[in-house]
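A quick aside before the break. I want you to see a complete sequence-to-structure record at least once, exactly as it would be stored in a machine-readable document. Don't worry about memorizing anything.
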Amino acid sequence: MFGPLPRTVRLLDAGAGAGALTAAFVSRCCEKRDGIHAIEATLYELDGEILNVLKATMRECERRCAVAGISFTFTIHSADFIQEMSARLAGDLFVKQPPAFDAAIANPPYRKISTDSDERRALRSVGVETSNLYTGFIALIQRLLVPGGQLVGITPRSFCNGPYFRPFREDFLSQLELRRLHVFESRQAAFRDDRVLQENIIFHAVRGLNQPDRILISSSSGEHGSDITEDVFPFAEIVHPHDAEKFIHIPSTANHSTAKEVMDGLRTSLASLGVTVSTGRVVDFRLKAALRKEPEHGTVPLLYPCHFNGGTVHWPRLEARKPNAILVNDETRPWLVPSGIYLLTKRFTSKEERRRLVACLFDPDLVKTEWVGFENHLNYLHASGHGLERTMAVGLYAFLNSTVVDQYFRRFSGHTQVNATDLRTLAYPDRETLQSMGCEVKSLNLSQDDIDELVAKHLHAYQ
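That is the input. The structure line, written in tokens, reads:
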């Protein structure tokens, strides 16, 4: 993915592991023979058990470059990249000035970092606010590039959307010009041997202030030797100019592009419909003493994703491992909601599920109760804390369960989590259209084809 490089390339590989990425870079340079005379590689690797392998890989790079007439030198730092570079970029006393690089290649470590961790404090010292090691690595790497310096990284796709990564996206897009994105359609193939179930992307970016007019998007399954499809898109379709969240949309198939065209015609927000979405209030481990496997006197239904049954709630499910009820008392009452018609969505879906967005209706005619608890792994759509009007709720049920919405959601979501923020930022049909859809649905036991046909008919006017 790298573009033209200077005659002497100062290369950074942070989180180098066994050196596979530097070795691939060297191999490419030796094959292309496009004017590179020297490669000065700087590698960071904290795992002491792999350092000997890394050194051996670099010796092999040295040998290959010698055959190709390229000078190759390397320095391996067995140090914490985040701590060291944060200190150097912050200009701490008695610390060396930060180095500068023409190119960086990275597969950084993936791990959440808590707000009070040493890594988080170090990153904050240089103005980086992020919740994962991999985005921390990328944020520091981009600060070490010279103007025009290039970064190619393979990372999870999760930074492309969601509220937690918004500060990182703003930082990334303000310092780097995004030139190419490659997405793997399979969550398993790229890192099968390591049992990583992330959706991964490869990106190529250049240190600079002006995003390109167009960007190359490519995709493959991730299986060895799989076909690569690619297309060029206007940059404004990937990062919408007026999107305060700076979501990075990645169309990977023709269907996803069609879904975007349909959704772009919608202008109604959830708030303007008088509908609110919230995360389920009941955090079960905090109310453990009040949970009950079976309903009993003094309890009300407690709903989990396991209670989803097609379009409606199946309660109780005594064969399930989860509790079915929660006691009503002074401790639990603030976390319950009054009975009514609510639309529920799963916050997490398994890789086996066909849809990323899975919605079902809580109908008080089917589950008789005065109060109900929604567990924290659910989102629920409501009207100011109370139930929704039935036809509106059913129309939203059909819309959110449609293939077109699922494909659109996958454009900008690289993980299996559906946050309340994701549902708030979607555009919706207007109230009249949703109610018309709701009136046509006589049973929630609809096939996917039935749902898609209904939604397509009513959204035709928006295209």
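Two observations worth writing down. Confidence is low (pLDDT under 50) at residues 189-197. Residues 207 and 273 are 42 Å apart (CA to CA). We'll return to this after the break.
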